[in-house]
Fold these 4 entries.
Entry 1:
Amino acid sequence: MNHTASRMIIVSAPSGAGKTTIVKHLLSTFPQLAFSVSATSRKMREGEKDGREYYFLTSDEFRLMIEQQKLLEWQEVYPGSYYGTPVSEVERMISGHRYPVFDVDVVGGLNIKKLYGDAALAVFIRPPSYEILEKRLRLRATDSEESLQKRLDKVKWELTFEQHFDRVIVNDKLEDALQQAEMLIREFLGLA
Ligand code: ADP
Ligand code: 5GP
């Protein structure tokens, strides 16, 4: 099986920067795109559904996927929480004639970019400041204090990866960020 989609979009950023919000907007704007559902060993949050936000696996099931080489890439994004892109997702997109959108951490994002080169647009979402990011994460209220701290502990390190991405969106005013994201996709897909 050839795993090469002709175009793909990678969206990476620290947790709370606005990836999910921006990706959802892009998916509802461009019928050409489809969300690549990752596998994860983290616990399901309230409101999430298996197979929609993620394929929720036990750590053993996740390890088996690694062993069986069923993941295009994977990372232990937070201590004890594994995330990975199933090869089968990319295949699903290709057979459905859709361009995959990957919401992945900064390292996973750059790994996918390395695999696909110019066929992939790697977008980094930057929050206006660390303080605003923390405030948004607390307002989102989806994480326990422990999970929140794990996320905040990584932010400064993750922000240093920005320079390696193709494009950067500063997510200050949401309307502006969504518009900029749309513009980038139009340009990349040749729809402009
Ligand atoms: P990520 O997927 O990167 O973790 P989210 O998209 O979940 O981030 O955004 C984190 C929180 O911040 C969510 O509650 C979201 O509604 C909110 N948010 C996103 N962008 C903005 C913005 N520009 N201004 C204010 N709140 C925002
Ligand atoms: P969350 O637990 O908030 O849903 O996601 C935590 C982090 O894991 C985010 O940065 C998200 O982009 C990243 N992530 C989600 N899926 C994958 C994946 O398949 N691979 C990698 N490397 N990171 C992922």
Entry 2:
Amino acid sequence: MKRFLSLTAIVLVLMVAVIGCQQAPKVLKVAVLAPLSGPVPTFGVSTRDGALLAINEWNAKGGVLNMKITPVVEDSQCTPDPAVNAANKVINQDKVHYIVGEVCSKASIPISEIANAAKVIQISPTSTNTAVTVDKSGATKAYIFRACFIDPFQGKVGATFAFNNLKAKNAFIMFDQSNDYVKGLAEAFEATFTQLGGKIVGKESYDGAKDTDFSAILTKVKGAKPDIVYLPDYYNVVNLATKQAKAKGITAPFMGGDGWDSSDLDTKASDGGYYTNHYSPDDQRAEVQNFLKAYGAAYKDDKNNPKVPDALAALAYDATNLLLTAIKNAGADNTDKVKAAMEGISFDAVSGKITYDAQHNPVKGAVILKVTGGKVTFNSFVAP
Ligand code: PHE
């Protein structure tokens, strides 16, 4: 009798264990590392919202490989130290195998070193500096990808537009020497602009983390009489510098890159300016129009109107969809298999068709936008 009871107990325990296992919901964690505070918070909010929209859509359709997707959102502040802390936290504590982020190249580069060593897949939606996916020796970091074009292309597009379309012959470059993205983009612009026959009539650096007064540089800009001022920084610095330039009577248009893309860009100060970017809501492709509808239904602005997604939201949505599609194609939550699936992917994203080159960079076109009358308007597409 005793023996029978203990056997029954064992059987019961086993049954409970089996049922427990079956019922435990399988979860796939995806970390989203975005600058929700710090110098460029609109970048973080858009990135988080774009990524979460994609995750919610997948979950509504049953998740991926029968797993529910759980986001782990961390504020990485567009700054190396907080970004490193956030990466270590999600990898070591939350045990994620996948990271979407960061936005800023100077934060994505240190994260990529940690993720790659841990065999964690990182896909940056928006970091355009070449060093994100390639190490110092020129080797591709096996587990690191991005969803955007790179700065050698973006700088070339900007310089070609300035020279050919705006007929600029003399350019002045202002750049933040402590920001990998700004420095890289300034170099790419200069290379193409001079190659086309243009002249750089001045090139001055500042420290974007500290400097708020650009008057010394702007005095030089005024004296050099350029046709265009290239300022490939983020919107917070662009707002300060263009406002001070207008106050100084500088009339040459400013031009920049994707870092200008923000609902907080001071369109009055940068009026007449141009910037290169990843996507335009005016694009009539179904991928873009469907995304606009879904994003507008999910998120509202202060006046309760549907929010229009910026490039950061579009690329975070693309990066998350790319990653989840690669996991589905791989058939397993295994980063070696997923990395191979990423390398072979062909995906119709909001920001264009994505396939990867050997450096894990998508080959994609760019758009040129113009700031005019308080608005940002579509100017043209440039093919890759
Ligand atoms: N490309 C920028 C970087 O690498 C980030 C960025 C992308 C900002 C798109 C705004 C819009 O740092």
Entry 3:
Amino acid sequence: MCGIVGYVGQNNAVPVVIQGLQRLEYRGYDSCGIAMMNSEGLNLEKVTGKVMELQGLLAQKKNSTSLAIGHTRWATHGPPTFDNAHPHVSQDGKIALVHNGIIENYKVLRDELENDGYQFRSETDTEVIVGLISKCYHGNLEHAVREALSYVVGAYGLAIVHADEPEKIVCTRKGAPLILAMGENEYFVASDVAAILHYSKDVIYLDNEEIGVLTPEGIETYSVADEPVVKKIHKITFNLEEIEKGGYEHFMLKEIFSQPQTIYDAMRGRLLPEEGNAHLGGIEHMIGSILHADQRYFTACGTSWHAGLIGEMMFEQFARLPCEVEYASEFRYREPLVDAKSIVFAISQSGETADTLAAIQEAKNRDATVLGICNVVGSSIARETEAGVYVHAGPEIGVASTKAFTSQVTVLSLLTLKLARLMGMSESDGLEIADAMQRLPENVEWVLKQADQIAEIAKLYADASNFLYLGRGVNFPVALEGALKLKEISYIHAEGYPAAEMKHGPIALIDKSMPIVAIAPQDKTYDKILSNIEEVKARHGRVIALATRGDERIKDIADHVLYVPPALSFTAPILNVIPLQLLSYYVAVERGCNVDQPRNLAKSVTVE
Ligand code: M6R
């Protein structure tokens, strides 16, 4: 959620940290700051607003240092003010700290520290950690950090410096992401690989409560029990270009247009078109357990939850395997019927979503087998799950998820195909599905060619206050996803509904100012959806229909028609969601919204 970057090495740390923070702005962005070590001690600069403003401030002052830690904040405790911005500094001015996460028992800790005479400057939960470390400090920062954190309940990724140990950054994490990285005689800490990719591709993933100590001599890591541990160095496989806009106006647009490739990447080496089957290396050894489980669950949040809904429908329709989909945030607290005979799939783009991590823990506590469907390699969810499948969408920077969603659905389709064949799906049906999946990238290309037409339609509807999205079967989750995309980036209220449910309530809302997006492919519910569209038209609603290429009939009743190629219900959600992504994108652009960094949202929600 918040972003952390730290540097120690031979070069000037300031531009490294600033560039890193800029790359992290998509994670959290209401204020930012940097703590720099110099011969006189700590030097602190903070601003409310963008990293660009901090950069300007630092340029005026010509700061230079070989050690610094920086932060971009997404406010949780206290509004985005100067005092609440990180880094937070101890009362004696010697310790500076940046934090991502939430300290749940901060109130109790704050009261205790205040009783001891400690004076707080901010309203944040974070500042109690600084106070505690200050209290526990007796000449060794990592020891003080370990002792201080033994009093803390909550989630954290932390980078801490002390003026008496000016060549050291101490880092630790619990339930929030943090990586360490090494270059040539320079070392980094960051909450996301994107921050340091320009300098290093060799990273260490800290496990919960492990401590990393960065100095100009290298990185040392220690276990929870304070024993030295040798950590594996992982090679990052994606490139800098993948986290840059590459000529597109926004990351979101670039990511929408990359879907022919990302969908292909999700299938590569996994789809077996000649056999009408699929092979998913990461969970091949779990297929028997999935088939024979007593219960199967998908758990996730937001867009990933919508992918789970599609997964559920496909599992049940094609593999005839019952399954449930749960919001991760609800799963944890509703005493789920999960035991050792249950399989729980956690779906997540970032692999760092706190609610999903908590749901995984709940499932594990109940002895279930938990599998991951994740995008970010090496993320917490990828490491907390027994086995899993990466969706290989590459870094997704736009806050509104697009390519990760279609890659998740692609992986769920492959898994369904595999299970369905084992459950008796005929070879000819398998071949037909595999062929349709193989043609997805070219069909997505075809859909993307309609971007200009969608941009024109968006202009006509950009001033609407409400939208209703209607779909049936696998297209109901697509309607939900279309509505979520619009809400997130254009701030227009939008709801997704099963089309036939409209007459049971939402029809009351329809008048000439209410645009309806009706997903109306030529499948078994086509005639019913046409009737729903007629019901809308009879009440003067305006209809944007998503229809199968060649459908002329729908032109007579809808105000606008967007076409997608003919599709099986297996591949329909992927094709149908793309025009809806584009529609929300162009509406948001038309309204002058910050598409990649919508207000109040962060890319990965690492607090519960
Ligand atoms: O990283 P995750 O997939 O676990 O994130 C889950 C949701 O926070 C995420 O999908 C969110 O709803 C996005 N902003 C959707 O565009």
Entry 4:
Amino acid sequence: MTTKRTSIHGQWSSRWVFVLAATGSAVGLGNIWKFPYITGENGGGAFVLIYLVCIACIGIPIMMAEVMLGRLGRQSPINTMRTLAQEGKHDKRWVWLGWMGVLAGFLILSYYSVIAGWALSYVFRTASGAFMGATADGVSSIFSQFVSNPESVLAWHTIFMVMTMVVVSRGVRGGLEKAVTYLMPALFGILLILVGYAASTTGHFTEGFDFLFNSDFSKITKDSVLTAMGHAFFTLSLGMGAIMIYGSYLPQDASIAKTSIMVSLADTLVALLAGLAIFPIVFANGLEPGSGPGLIFNTLPIAFGHMEGGTFFGTLFFLLLVFAAWTSSISLIEPAVAWLVENHGYNRLNASVWTGIVTWSVGLLTVLSFNEWKFSFPFLGQNKENGFFDIVDILTANIMLPVGGLMIAIYASRFLSRKHSVEELGMGEGDAYKVWHLLVSYVTPIAVIIVLINALNIVPFLKQIF
Ligand code: TRP
């Protein structure tokens, strides 16, 4: 055994807390808000199938690699990569992987907090009975009036950002761990209640089910494959160091493979359940599945407005969404906060305040991209309407996270010594290890590179230049 480092930020009380925290990071707006609307935009079943294949063949092996690097380095991703590269006598530039992660985290959280703010405002709007008996038109005009008013969206964005920073400022045990141990059981409880309720009351369940699981590959384009792969990274929180830093707080005796698989399964289950709850309502009301980021805000309130107990269950649903977003947003900023503490001697409170202010400010641009500063942006055949928001979303989820994940896979399989990876993964050198190694050294890198080159039209672009 080599001597093991410990993290100056502390450690989870047990491997179960890690599973809760990593599941908390993974399960978020990505599952409940984004997965349904991008599935709608990309035609349903075939997209879902590609997404599931990406989770299994790319997501799980990279999650194991990311947790492993984190636990080996036991620092913020920037310093973890610096230390591992130094010790292994590798190129110093591996530290850029950490930097890109911090940047991606800022960018993602900047818009994530705005959408979480929408959800927060819908908790109160639903509780006040605003949707009682509302028609589809009524519900969508409530939504469009809300997002077209920058002041109120800004206020909710601010509240959510403060909520995030309060947790992060309290540290690993006192903040992150406490939050996930209360919020995650509540989240699962609410989800179960809602699914039970939906299963017993929905009319168009089979239509929704077919939309999600009947694969019609004629609807698939190069960019839907890129979106599916990008979403696999996004939903599992991979490729930017969030899972790496959570791994750096993982007790030494916990199994990386088992915990990673558990987290991925839980995350996938939540996304599919959310889809099963949402699409039946879309079809029952003759709504458009491809209507974009407003999908759940335009559909679910219709159902809540007409069901028995809808005000109660609707409020519960948006509360679930806020909890899910909250346990994710803390992981998006933790790498930057940990780095400020490690390298600049900030205490956690100051580090949280400063990172919060920066992210909040960038978020203003997303707030405006739904009203004052709305501009169209053509992206590979799709016309995106909310310029800044869409650009940041595509840049992070479809490009930065896959590139980050690719680098993690390459580092873990080709640079890190076999001795280290065998010892850290702790599953021996048998078949399980070999499968993992094959996936991260060949399958994942090749798949990610092909999808990126294809969708981003890199080859025709290069031909044009030369
Ligand atoms: N996975 C979260 C979701 O699905 C979002 C998230 C949290 C995330 N941490 C991340 C995405 C790190 C990418 C990287 O909502």
